[in-house]
Amino acid sequence: MCLMGLLGDVSVTSRRRTTIQNRIKCCLFDHSRRKQQDSRCFHHSSSHQASFKSDTMFFSSNALRLILLLCLVSSSFSSSAASLSNSTTTNQTLRPQEELQKLKLIREELQKINKPAVKTIQSSDGDTIDCVSTHQQPAFDHPLLQGQRPMDPPEIPKGYSIEDESYEDSSQLWSLSGESCPEGTIPIRRTTEQDMLRASSVRRFGRKIRRVRRDSTSNGHEHAVGYVSGRQYYGAKASINVWSPRVTSQYEFSLSQIWVIAGSFTHDLNTIEAGWQISPELYGDTYPRFFTYWTSDAYRGTGCYNLLCSGFVQTNRRIAIGAAISPRSSYRGRQFDISLLIWKDPKHGHWWLQFGSGALVGYWPAFLFTHLKQHGSMVQFGGEIVNNRPGGSHTSTQMGSGHFAGEGFGKASYFRNLQIVDWDNTLIPASNLKMLADHPNCYDIRGGTNRVWGNYFYYGGPGKNPRCP
């Protein structure tokens, strides 16, 4: 570059002597500093300019040849060095910029997600729980909610009985210390830089990977579910057995949940989801955690887990969405479950969520949805895992307890007291329940009915095994 600049200046008239002098001086800079000095080839202080202007002689042809030779030698060394270390230099130059940009993006996202805390509680599992003023929670960042307050509790569905709630109730680890959030606040699990750095995409953090169909396994999602369809559904209820299944990869998960669904699975799917999940990518550990999710466009751009975007409005100060559940069930040991109820408020149309024995968690505003503004067209209960096929074989990530449905109580995981909410805001048994397992040799499901548990099923499995290679 310096050589070409100098050759171009040799033919100019004497009024450009200063420029020539500056270009020549560029060539004489130490080679190791050239990248930092390039700009100085074109800008010099006034004292230098005055000194050059005082020169009355043009360089002799011999002097010019010497300078040109020096430039050629320098350029040759520069080209050799560049050819030997081009890729390394490029990586060293670009990677820090990329990392800084990513860190900047992460911090911008954290400012949106994490709100100012009135009180902070440290959980034994490492979580930080921030008690945030109810009106400052992420939901109220939504343009249609700004300046509003949470809605009053709706009418509970008819036929609801607290006696059906718990076999042995599970709670949350953060609350076992006896600490709680004050009135007028809600507990929110703080999102950290480490949480976002684990994510495969910062911009997609807290969102599910889009799926073309519910029963498609082309992207590695596998299910064992009971479902009802063919009617109008205004909610669902079930008690879900809580376990700690093994998840073998950071980018796999295992969950058990209720889905309320409307629309098509291809492009305009509306879902409301709640249950428990183990997701090392999202949470950084393998605790089962209470979670929620929603989407109104088949997971394309709307919705998120928990409170990681504006949407779900939390009203409860004792339950933290995304917090670890404790205790968990054990094989041949004590069994624990969580009761969840989702239903559409007949008066305002919002979809409410209840956790455990009568604790209202909050609601999904009706305006978030298209089809679910009216009602659901399907309800599903069951388990889902992600299978990334490590080493070309099926994953060993477990669903439910990690044991097949045929092992029964105390060994296999269950859903019990399956109910749906009808048009009259009444809880009725989930009749005509159909069972579906995408890969029954890996994860299966078996249903039944009895007087104590109503409609129920066992489900799950170990994943990879001799029949599931």
TrEMBL record:
InterPro entries: Glutamic_endopeptidase, Neprosin, Neprosin_propep. Residues 215-469 form the Neprosin PEP catalytic domain. PANTHER family: PROTEIN, PUTATIVE (DUF239)-RELATED, PROTEIN, PUTATIVE (DUF239)-RELATED-RELATED. It comes from the Eukaryota. This is Uncharacterized protein LOC104750894 isoform X1. The lineage of its organism: Eukaryota, Viridiplantae, Streptophyta, Embryophyta, Tracheophyta.
